[in-house]
Amino acid sequence: MAGRHRVTLVPGDGIGPEVAEAARLVLDATDVGIEWVVRRAGATAVADGDELLPQETLASIRETRVAIKGPITTPVGSGFRSVNVALRQELDLFAAVRPARSLPGVPTRHGDVDLVVIRENTEDLYRGIEFAPGTPQAEALREELRTLANFEVRPDAGVTLKPISVAGTRRIVRFAFEYAAANRRSRVTLGHKASIMPTSDGLFLRTALDDPIDRGEILVEDLQVDHLTGELVRRPSRFDVLLLPNLYGDILSDLCAGLVGGLGLIPGANIGWEYAVFEPVHGSAPDIAGQGKANPIAMILSGAMLLRHLTELDAARRVEGAVDEVLRTGAVRTADLGGTSSTREVAIAIAHEVRAA
Ligand code: NAD
User: Which regions of the chain does DSSP assign to beta strands (E)?
Assistant: First the structure.
């Protein structure tokens, strides 16, 4: 049944094309009939004389409404805005969902992790409100702060602003409780630093706790994010859904990846009211790009999340089951998990299990 779902595929940079090809191979093995619309973004697009985030790519995602993308390189300190952040803001993909669960055949300190990080994706320090030192804008801001609040900001300071709004918080809170209910989760833990930042993190916390949403049987608790980090390392099984503002969500999802075996294993979704873009948590890994060493499992499991989104539940379960089976057997695995197999060999083994299921 070819072409039942049209999905935009953005291979991305670095290891992106390798893991994207792997995910495509596995998703095609499910026979749900995906018609892939391949579009560029990132360094790959710039090399072809296009913008970092080409209009054609955005238009394709708006048309298909669903996309899966590989990681995209953000050159540090070069003045480039992150394509990933821009994409989330352009399409208003306000919720990042990143499940981390202990996987068979992947030994880690804790064998019983099963949690989901839900991260607000559009506000906070990632909003992109930046003032470089010495610029007229930074000078105007310094002057304003002096007048408004008697704050003296050093003239050589760079400044990043952290907006967190009631409306932005309310929608991620509702999303998180709806997600928890739909996925039979029993507890939502809010992470914040309300003691130090009462007007941003404090607002996030108060808005979340005061929201009149019907939480059903789902428990809610809150922890200062530093305390939460320590507890996650010590006793991760005590957590279920973590609801976090943007920056803490970014950092703690890598921590959660570390708890279950590393970045090569953790999938993710960026969800808005209209569009959804699925992508692994990891970056473009320039240190191993082009060598066939990348673990494709994070991208393949992002594909399973995409299948769920398309309500292809049986296909999603088959992909997740196939990943578990290949990991359990242990014969085919990439170097990050102690093996010697290539990205493609892992994808072929998983696709084989998908067909056998
Ligand atoms: P990274 O995730 O690319 O790499 C961190 C480490 O993990 C590296 O040693 C890498 O080899 C390893 N690793 C990552 N994915 C792996 C995989 N699938 N298999 C095996 N090993 C893997 O993080 P970084 O080095 O901080 O970032 C590199 C670039 O990626 C930067 O430009 C960053 O901005 C970008 N980035 C993009 C995204 C995204 O597109 N969503 C996310 C994070 C980082």
Answer: 5-10, 34-38, 66-69, 95-101, 114-120, 130-131, 159-160, 187-192, 219-224, 241-244, 269-271, 276-278
319 touches 350 (CB < 8 A): yes
Sign of torsion over alpha carbons 60, 61, 62, 63: positive
**3-state class of 53 per DSSP?**
coil
Describe the crossing of helices 343-356 and 16-29 by its angle, rounded to 10 degrees. 10
CA 250 to chain centre: 8
Mutate which of 284, 333, 337, 341 for ligand 1 pocket (most atoms within 8 A of beta carbon): 284
Contact between residue 69 and residue 41 where contact means Cβ atoms under 8 Å apart: yes
* Helix (H/G/I), strand (E/B), else coil: 134: coil
pLDDT band of 147, cuts 50, 70, 90:
very high
Q: Which of 279, 265, 225 is nearest to 96 (CA)?
A: 279
Q: Which residues pair with 10 in a beta bridge?
A: 69
pLDDT at position 2 is: 53
Please give the pLDDT value at position 77: 57
Distance CA 16, CA 347 (A): 14
pLDDT at residue 79, as a whole number: 55
Burial 80-96 (b: 16+ CB within 10 A, else e): eebbbbbbbbebebbbb
Q: Quick one: which H or E segment has residue 88?
A: helix 83-90
pLDDT for 212 equals 83
31: left (phi over 0), alpha (psi -120 to 50) or beta: left
Report residue 78's pLDDT band, with 50, 70 and 90 as the boundaries: low
Catalytically annotated residue among 193, 248, 293, 336? 193
Give CA–CA dist 179/94, Å, rounded: 14
8 A C-beta contact, residue 124 and residue 164? yes
Specify the residue with its C-alpha closest to ligand 1, atom 37: 283
Average pLDDT rounded to a whole number, residues 27-43: 95
250 is an active site residue? yes
